[in-house]
Amino acid sequence: MAKPVVAIVGRPNVGKSTLFNRIAGKRISIVEDQPGVTRDRIYAEAEWLNNVFTLIDTGGIEPESKETILSQMRNQAEIAIETADVIIFMVDGKEGLTGTDREVASMLRKAHKPVVLTLNKVDTVEHSPYYYDFFELGMDEPVEISSTAAYNIGDLLDAVVAHFPDEKADKDEDEVIKVAIIGKPNVGKSSMINHILGENRVIVSDIAGTTRDAIDTPFTDGEDKYLLIDTAGIRRRSKIKENIEKYSVIRAFTAVERADVCLLVIDSTEGVTEQDKKIAGYSHENGKGMIIVVNKWDLIEKDTHTMKEFTKEIRNELAYLSYAPLLFVSAMSGQRMKQVLETVKFVANQNAMRIPTGNLNEIIGEAVLLNQPPSDKGKRLKIFYGTQAAVKPPTFILFINDKELMHFSYLRYIENQIRQNYGFEGTPIRFILREKDKGGK
């Protein structure tokens, strides 16, 4: 199940970034007492009462402003509103209701999303003198907080998570394989989707950044159901010249979170770039199934070693994705494109695979016999047993005597033994270490 998305919106200088930093637990947004400081959406993972969610900070909204920067900030806030599952609408409890607040409220009503009206800068049990004025907006009873003093933040988060979708409601989606097409702009993501679908549902253009939104396209292949998520190309901030591109980045990242499998599309004429590494890293950290698709292979002059050399380069540059299948295709000519969907289905199954506990412990036992665990100052690591705790990604709990004795290299060895027996191709594997017997007895 994808993490819910919560967006903090409101006019400039009402304290959105301070609240964002308070909830996220670290200072991420620039906080300055001047309207318009937060110009880009900033996002972070947050948690409240075992509810993990993505929090988005936005620039302030000035609905009627013709100034370029404020107009751009309005655009980014609109995209955050569209992306969000729940919206924190922040207003100033000291200044009171303004015309801009009314305009923002009008925007939010049109979004048809749950909204938690939040009066900031109220740090006492007494209501803001303007408290009842905000009932004019036709929203639920306002929550009064002070983001600076951390007053009533818990009540606010209680109200937010109450709107999160019920996990049971997403059971029908479990049968659908969700595939995010990710990569830099202009690498051929839209062409790839068009070839898979067999029809031109997505605009294809040679102009980088044509795809502004994350576009969902459901389709079936035999008895298998898929959802293809085409995202705006992600590029480095220094390269973003057209402002609307950076407004699409959050959609690309939320698409990764929603996906079961990510297709990282690399342009064969450019090779692996630093931005490819960053995009791949985000998918890897989120535990998604991964396939590396080298597109435009028809444009490369070949010799007998070309594919072998290119494979070596990718494996060196993306070493942490050694588990990811590698496909060389041409979305334009259709070369090897049939393999893409076949590999997606295979990787989705690997990402959702479970190992019986007995089989897992046989593998661990054999691994320990073949290669003794590390020791330190006469004390040796003991692995008592393991169990699989979750799928998507496959997650294993290892009960051991001392976490400090578990070297990274030995954990990687255990992972490799599991992969040799069960594959888990195309998916990262995660481990949770638990100390069963600290004394080592």
TrEMBL record:
It holds the Pfam family KH_dom-like. Coiled coil: none annotated. InterPro entries: G_ENGA, GTP-bd, GTPase_Der, KH_dom-like, KH_dom-like_a/b, P-loop_NTPase, Small_GTP-bd. One of its GO terms (molecular function) is ribosome binding. Residues 4-168, 177-352 form the EngA-type G domain. GTP 1 binds at residues 10-17, 57-61, 120-123. Keywords: GTP-binding, Nucleotide-binding, Repeat, Ribosome biogenesis. GTP 2 binds at residues 183-190, 230-234, 295-298. One of its GO terms (biological process) is ribosome biogenesis. GTPase that plays an essential role in the late steps of ribosome biogenesis. Belongs to the TRAFAC class TrmE-Era-EngA-EngB-Septin-like GTPase superfamily. EngA (Der) GTPase family. Associates with the 50S ribosomal subunit. This is GTPase Der. The lineage of its organism: Bacteria, Bacillati, Bacillota, Clostridia, Peptostreptococcales. The gene is der.
